[in-house]
Amino acid sequence: MESNRQQNINRLILKELSEIFLLKTKKMPGVLISVTQVNITPDLSLAHAHLSFFPSEKGNELIENINENVKSIRFELGKRIGQQLRIVPNLIFYLDNSLDYLDNIDKLLGKK
Question: How confident is the model over 84-108, as pLDDT tens digits?
Answer without folding.
Answer: 988 999 999 999 877 767 777 777 8
